Fold this sequence. Notes:
The protein is 73% helix and 0% strand. By secondary structure, the chain is mainly α. The protein has two domains: 2-70, no CATH class; 73-109.
Amino acid sequence: MLGVFGDPALTGKSILDDLREGKPTVMMALARSGADRTQAARLRDLFGNPDLDSGGAEDLRAIIVDTGALERIEQMIRVRADAAVAALAEAPIPADAREALVALAASAINRQR
């Protein structure tokens, strides 16, 4: 998600690289499965295109949002983080370790885009 929607100044990563490479991700699989015919054709044209420019990347991000793929990925992250925090609540570990791990989980899901 951060490789496509993140702020390069914060992530240290270009928001074009994964799209140009056609990096297989769950988010892109969700976008493909939710795409209508026009969106699917645009995905085929742009995703994995080494000449992708910022306008094409913006089109891809719009498709990801419009198909609900971004929202579903964010939900998947929240569900897994909540499960991890719940497991930590029951884990036989020192309280300070638990607090550090809960804070780490929170920082992982609340990263800036």
